[in-house]
Design a protein that fits this description.
The complex is a heterodimer of chains A (318) and B (330). Helix content of chain A is 79%, strand content 1%. Chain A contains 14 helices and 2 strands. Chain A has a two-stranded antiparallel ribbon with strand order 1-2. The longest helix of chain A has 36 residues. Chain B is mostly helical and 330 residues long. Chain B has a domain of 227 residues: Orthogonal Bundle (MetI-like fold). Chain B contains 12 helices and 4 strands, in the order H-H-E-E-H-H-H-E-E-H-H-H-H-H-H-H. In chain B, strands 1-2 form a two-stranded antiparallel ribbon. Classes of the chains: A mainly alpha (318), B mainly alpha (330).
Chain lengths: 318, 330
C-alpha cells in the first residue's frame, strides 16, 4: 500500500511538471506574437511592454522564462496588467463562492444520478426507463450556460421564484445561502446527473449478469439485499472514478455558470479576464486548475487502492 | 440498425438540420435579401402594411414577424445592430456544424494514427505517445481549450507557411480537434493492443507484410466500427465545446455568427426578447441530441458488446471515454 502511494505520488509529480511546461508553452511559445505585448492587454504602451519583457525575462532563454513564470504564479506576485491587481489574491477571494457552487452541484448530481440510474436499471426496458433515458440524454445535450439563461429568465426574472443571483455567505445566513445557490446548483448538476445515471444504468446491467448475482439470488436473498449488497456496491465503482475526475475539473463548469448567476467566484473572474483578453488570470486559473485535478486524482487513486486491492495489484502488474 | 427506429429518426433530424443550414445562401439571397453580417439599425420595414423600426429607439430589436415582411426578419432582428436573426441562425449553424464536423475529423485522424502507432509498436513509441496524451488529459478540457483560444485569438497562429489570423474559424477547429484527441486515442490503442495478437496479423506477418501494411490494411479495417461511433459522438461533444468557447469569447469571433455566439450576445436581451436566446440554443440541443441518440444506436448495432462509452459532456468532464479505456482493453 505504501509502495503504491509512493509510486503514485512520484508519478503525480512528473505529471505536474509536464503540465506546467505545457502551460508555459501554450502561453509563451506557441502563439505567433510578442508575449509581452499579449500580456500587457489592450491599452499597452511601449513602456509597459518593455517593462514586462524585462520582468518576465522574455529576452532570456526559454528555461529561464519558464522558471520566472512559475515563480510568479506560485509566489503570489502575479499581476494583471489589464485590471491592475494581484491575480492570486483575487483567486483566493473567489474560492468560497466557487467551492459552494461546486459542492452543492456535486451533491445534487450524485443523488439524482444514482437514483435515476438505479431506477432505470431495475426497470430496464420499461416505461420509466425510457422516460428517464430521454431526460438524461436531453440533459447531456444542452449547453450549460444556455440552460442557465433560460432558467434564470423563467424562474427568476419572470416569476421571482428564486432570488436573482448574487451570493450570501453561509456563515451570514445559511437559508439565504441555499436559496441563492439552488438554481446555479441545479443548472450545473443537470448535465452530470444525466451522464451519471446513464453510466450507472449500464454498469448495473453488466453487474446484474454476473454469476455472483445469480448465486446471491439462488441463496434466496431478498431482491432488496441482492440489489443493495451485491449489485449496487460493484456498480458504483465507475461512478466513484468519474466523480473524482469530474469534481476536480468542475472549475470549467463554474466558468460557464457563475457569470450568469452573478456569483463572484473564480469562474466569473475567469470569464471577465477572457472578455478583456487579460492573460495572467487565465494563466493562473489554467495552471491551478490542472494542478488541482492532478492532485485530486492522485488522492482519489490512493484512497481507492485502500478500498479495493485489485487497483493496487493491477497497477503493479503494469 | 434498420430495426432501431428511434436512432434512424434522429439521424433524419440531423440531416434536416444540415439541410437547413446549407440552405442559408438561398434564404439570404432570395427571401431575406440580406447577409448574416449586414446591419439594419436605422431601417424601417413594412410588416403587414405597417411601417416598423428594425431597432426601436430604445434599442429593442424587432421580434419575429414571420412572413409579415415577405420573409425579411422572419425571426426578427438580433439586437442593436439589427441583423436578420433567421439569416444569422442559418449561417451561424453552418459555422457550428462545420466546426463540429471538421474538428471531429481532426480528432479521429490524430487519434487513429496515434492509437495505431502506440498499440502496434508498443515499447518506447507507446510510452512516448501515451505519456504525452496523459499530460493533455490532465487538463480539464474546457480550461485547456480556453487557454489556447485566448492566446491564439490575440496573435493568430503560424504553422510553417500557413498563417491563421486571430479571428479565423480554423483556430477553434484546431483547438477542439486537439483537446479531444487523448479521449479517443486511448480506447483505440487498447483495441489495437488486443487485435495485434490475433491470427490474421500473424498471417500477414508470415506473408511478409511490413508494419505500415499491417497497421493500415489489416488493423484499420477492424477498427472502423469503433471509429465511426466515436466520430459521431465526437461531433456532438465538439458542438457543445464550440458553443462554450464562443460564449466565453474565445471561439468564433465577431462579426461571424455561431449558435454559441448568438446565445452569448442575446443574453442581455433575455427578458425582452427571450426567443433570441431560446432559438439558437434549441438548435444546438437538437443537433447534439440527434447525434447522441444516433451514435448510441450505431454503437448498439455495430458492436453490441462494446464497452466503449463516449457520451457528450459539454467539454466539461475530464472523464469522457475514460472509464472505458481501462475496461475496453480485454
Amino acid at each position: 500500500m505504501a509502495r503504491f502511494a509512493l509510486r503514485r505520488l512520484v508519478g503525480m509529480a512528473a505529471v505536474l511538471f509536464a503540465v506546467s511546461v505545457l502551460t508555459f508553452l501554450i502561453f509563451n511559445v506557441i502563439p505567433n506574437s510578442d508575449p509581452a505585448q499579449r500580456m500587457a492587454g489592450k491599452q499597452a504602451t511601449p513602456e509597459l511592454v518593455a517593462s514586462i519583457t524585462d520582468e518576465w525575462g522574455f529576452d532570456k532563454s526559454l528555461p529561464e522564462q519558464y522558471v520566472t513564470m512559475m515563480r510568479k504564479v506560485f509566489s503570489g506576485d502575479l499581476i494583471s496588467y489589464e485590471g491592475r491587481e494581484n491575480v492570486d489574491e483575487r483567486l483566493v477571494e473567489g474560492i468560497p463562492e466557487t467551492f459552494s457552487l461546486c459542492i452543492g452541484a456535486a451533491l445534487i448530481w450524485m443523488i439524482f444520478g444514482i437514483l435515476f440510474g438505479y431506477l432505470s436499471a431495475v426497470r430496464a426496458g420499461g416505461k420509466l426507463d425510457k422516460a428517464l433515458t430521454v431526460l438524461a440524454v436531453t440533459g447531456i445535450s444542452m449547453p450549460v450556460f444556455w440552460l442557465a439563461a433560460i432558467l434564470l429568465n423563467y424562474l427568476t426574472y419572470k416569476t421571482e421564484i428564486f432570488p436573482s443571483g448574487g451570493y450570501v455567505e453561509l456563515t451570514a445566513d445559511p437559508l439565504e445561502w441555499v436559496s441563492h445557490l439552488i438554481l446555479p446548483w441545479i443548472t450545473l448538476a443537470i448535465l452530470y446527473a444525466g451522464f451519471y445515471s446513464r453510466v450507472l444504468r449500464s454498469s448495473m446491467l453488466d453487474v446484474m449478469n454476473e454469476d455472483y448475482v445469480r448465486t446471491a439470488r439462488a441463496k434466496g436473498l431478498t431482491e432488496r439485499r441482492v440489489m443493495g449488497r451485491h449489485v449496487m456496491r460493484n456498480s458504483l465503482i465507475p461512478i466513484v472514478t468519474l466523480f473524482g475526475l469530474d469534481f476536480g475539473a468542475l472549475l470549467g463548469g463554474a466558468i460557464l455558470v457563475e457569470p450568469l448567476f452573478n456569483l463572484e467566484g473564480i469562474g466569473q473572474y475567469s470569464y471577465e479576464a477572457l472578455k478583456n483578453t487579460d492573460l495572467p488570470p487565465i494563466m493562473a486559473v489554467v495552471l491551478f486548475g490542472a494542478f488541482f485535478v492532478v492532485l485530486f486524482n492522485a488522492l482519489v487513486d490512493i484512497a481507492y487502492a485502500r478500498l479495493d486491492p485489485r487497483v493496487r495489484l493491477g497497477a503493479s502488474a503494469q | 440498425m434498420r430495426r432501431n427506429r428511434v436512432a434512424l429518426g434522429f439521424l433524419g433530424l440531423f440531416v434536416l438540420i444540415v439541410a437547413f443550414v446549407l440552405a442559408a445562401p438561398l434564404w439570404a439571397d432570395h427571401v431575406a435579401h440580406t447577409g448574416p453580417n449586414d446591419t439594419h439599425t436605422l431601417q424601417k420595414i413594412e410588416v403587414d402594411g405597417e411601417k416598423r423600426d428594425v431597432v426601436a429607439p430604445t434599442g429593442q430589436p424587432i421580434g419575429p414577424v414571420w412572413l409579415g415582411a415577405d420573409g425579411r426578419f422572419f425571426l426578427g432582428a438580433d439586437g442593436r445592430l439589427g441583423r436578420d436573426e433567421m439569416v444569422r441562425l442559418m449561417y451561424g449553424g453552418r459555422n457550428s456544424l462545420f466546426i463540429g464536423i471538421v474538428s471531429a475529423l481532426i480528432t479521429t485522424l490524430l487519434a487513429t494514427v496515434l492509437g495505431l502507432l502506440s498499440g502496434y509498436y508498443r515499447g518506447w513509441t507507446d510510452t512516448a505517445i501515451s505519456r504525452a496524451m496523459d499530460v493533455v488529459w490532465a487538463f480539464p478540457v474546457l480550461l485547456l481549450a480556453i487557454a489556447l483560444g485566448l492566446v491564439l485569438a490575440v496573435g493568430g497562429l503560424q504553422i510553417g507557411p500557413i498563417h491563421l489570423s486571430g479571428g479565423s474559424i480554423w483556430i477553434p477547429i484546431l483547438i477542439i480537434g486537439i483537446v479531444y484527441t487523448p479521449y479517443m486515442a486511448r480506447p483505440i490503442r487498447g483495441e489495437v493492443l488486443s487485435l495485434r495478437e490475433k491470427e490474421f496479423v500473424e498471417a500477414a506477418v508470415a506473408q511478409g507484410a511490413g508494419p505500415l501494411r499491417i497497421m493500415f490494411s489489416e488493423l484499420l479495417p477492424n477498427l472502423w466500427s469503433t471509429i465511426i461511433v466515436f466520430f459521431t459522438l465526437n461531433i456532438a461533444n465538439n458542438m457543445l465545446l464550440e458553443s462554450a468557447l464562443s460564449f466565453l469569447s474565445v471561439g468564433v469571433q465577431p462579426p461571424d455568427a455561431s449558435w454559441g455566439t448568438m446565445i452569448a450576445s442575446a443574453f442581455n436581451l433575455i427578458t425582452s426578447a427571450p426567443l433570441l436566446t431560446i432559438i439558437p440554443g434549441t438548435m444546438i440541443l437538437l443537433s447534439v441530441l440527434a447525434l447522441n441518440v444516433f451514435g448510441d444506436g450505431l454503437r448498439d448495432a455495430l458492436d453490441p458488446k462494446s464497452k466503449v462509452r463516449f457520451e457528450a459532456h459539454s467539454g466539461l468532464s475530464a472523464a469522457e471515454g475514460s472509464e472505458t479505456a481501462e475496461v475496453a482493453t480485454p
